[in-house]
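ugh ok fine here u go
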Amino acid sequence: MTLMKLTKSQLLQAYRRMQTIRMFEERLHKEFATGEIPGFVHLYAGEETAAVGVCEHLTDADHIGSTHRGHGHCIAKGCDVMAMMKEIYGKRDGLCAGKGGSMHIADLSKGMLGANGIVGGGPPLACGAALTAKTNKTNGLAVAFFGDGGFNQGTTLESMNFARVHDLPVLFVLEDNGYAETTSSDWSIGGGDPVRRAEGFGIPGIRVDGHDFFAVYAAAKEAVEAIRSGSGPQFIHIEFTRYYGHFEGDAMTYRPPGEVKEERAFLDCLKFFRARVTQGGILTGEQLDEIDDEVEALISTAVAGAKAAPLPVEADLTTNVYLNY
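structure:
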């Protein structure tokens, strides 16, 4: 895969967003161990290419349906990192006023419909957003992110059928990290080929290597352009692995010894990206190092701000319960 026609500014933005996701999640892994973060946390580290490679083609008017592993989608869609961290800490100034937490973090102003604690809960929401875009003729689209476990849920399969029947502008993105919580996707996805399953609904699909940002970016570009031109739903199967357990606290006894260590050493998407752009003479190591330093400072500031931020008060319980029209 070539570097395509990405400008330096586009490459720098893509790297910044992927590195922000990585450092955000690595820091949360450490902070969760302190016991200060309420609820469950599911980390996205290792999967950065999917969120960024897809969302770089979207605008704030496009919508995404996320999963329980939603921090990466939030950051890739442009959500405020400071407000995200406050939300995860359950603070009043968080994106959802501290009411959503990690698994239900959302920002409708950015088209982020929300993380979802229900496996397979995102595709129906994305279809609703896509139906709205089609009805209102906005030329917008929606993306449904889901994992290999979510791909076996009836909600996802019904959404794919609904999208095809109504020719909805929706992109289905299977983030196959190898494990539906603890079960290998090599065994659990009937038929063995997710793309063929999508094609069974009449939805064109492609499989891509999720360690290669440029492969994901190119596949997403083609799919998004097809959707905006009126071709209806599209499907992308992205393969990679996650660096942490299904949730923070997962002992990962179902994974082969050394699997994550080898993945980090030899198949890290950020290392691949850095090598491609620097060896190709497009960007310098110094430019990327500067981004690393800036992102590290941002994450540290976000954590400090979240810890110092005020908690919700009793009166906040009755706010945002109903939507007034």
